[in-house]
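Researcher: Good morning. I'm working through a list of sequences from a screen, and I'd like to move beyond sequence-only analysis. For each chain I'm collecting a predicted structure so we can compare shapes side by side. This is the next one on the list. No need for commentary yet; just the structure.
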Amino acid sequence: MSLASDKVIVGKIGAPYGVKGWVKINSYTETPEGIFEYAPWFLGDEKEYQIDQWRPHGKSLVAKIVGVDSRDDAERIKNLDININASQLPDLGDEGVYWRELT
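Model: Good morning. Structure tokens for this chain:
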């Protein structure tokens, strides 16, 4: 089985932020901002998304996703997992292993 074609969950879309399509981002990466090092994102419907802008907001993160232009659009993607291609993960070398590789 090839793990290179698998998707890996790196976060989740949170609640809408404002009326222009921004959303809160729940990051599962080692450093929260690290989630923005990966592109494209694949959300629950497996559609490909790109990040237009992002910024810290208090202790959390918010982002503007290309094609998500209103609060209604943001509501439609709320609570969807943020997936990336496993091939985008950094190589851990001979000593490292990802949890997903232990099955």
